[in-house]
Amino acid sequence: MANHKIEIRRRNIEKILQAAEQVFAEQGYGVTSMADIAERAQLPRSNLHYYFNTKDELYRAVLQDLLEVWKQDALCFERFDDPRVVLTSYIRAKMGHSRSRPLGSKVWAEEILHGAPLLGDSLGESLVPWAQLKQAKIRRWVEQGLILPVEPSALLYMIWASTQHYADFGYQVALLNDGEPLSDMAFERSVQTVTGVILRGIGLEP
């Protein structure tokens, strides 16, 4: 019985977070209400307040959930040492989530563009040490002669900008693709192109 309750809780939270991500992306934080999210989630408003006391708390949960997904994408930095393997895996994972969770990326971008008013200091506490570890690994690759000299932070920013473009500017991507979303084949070509350009830029062959 306890496991059943845990599973119900997990499913409800997942449903609420998905709905909130969609509504925050479409309407913006300011005008979104808990009632809007409850309607999208097809749950009573009381259910939302059972799991999240306020809109602020739910908004932070959406952003933290997305950040954790992106951190999972970067586990290849810890699992592998070969820069080609690490960066190929990382770019593909990031591109994949730009396609599967474009609205989440837009919510994140909106928060960052405004100086992270709601995440505040908590963002620095979680993001800065994480990024520093990735930069340290890139720096070791340079020191070992595995890649061309590169500023580690700039390489990360380039990867983030290139991969998240497909989420944040999805409308523009579709517009320039005859008004249609990229097909699976076209998206795969994009993944390979982004990967190839970045790897060749640091002296590696895809």
Number of helices: 11
Bin the strand percentage: under 5%
CATH level 1 name of the largest domain: Mainly Alpha
Q: Which assembly state applies to the chains in this document?
A: single chain
Q: From the 3D coordinates, which CATH architecture of the largest domain would you assign? A: Orthogonal Bundle
List how many beta strands DSSP finds: 0
Helix/strand order? HHHHHHHHHHH
Kindly describe this structure.
With 206 residues, this protein is mainly α. The protein folds into two domains: 1-53, Homeodomain-like (Arc Repressor Mutant, subunit A, Orthogonal Bundle); 63-201, Tetracycline Repressor, domain 2. It is 77% helix and 0% strand. The chain contains eleven helices and no strands. The chain has helices at residues 2-27, 34-41, 45-51, 55-73, 76-79, 83-100, 102-113, 121-143, 152-168, 170-175, 184-201. Helix 1 (2-27) crosses helix 7 (102-113). The chain is globular and about 60 Å long. The mean pLDDT is 93.
Brief sketch in words of this structure:
This protein has 206 residues and is an all-alpha fold. It contains eleven helices and no strands.
Please specify the SSE layout and strand pairing.
Elements lengths: L1 H26 L6 H8 L3 H7 L3 H19 L2 H4 L3 H18 L1 H12 L7 H23 L8 H17 L1 H6 L8 H18 L5
Helix pairs in contact: 1-2, 1-4, 1-7, 2-3, 6-9, 6-11, 7-9
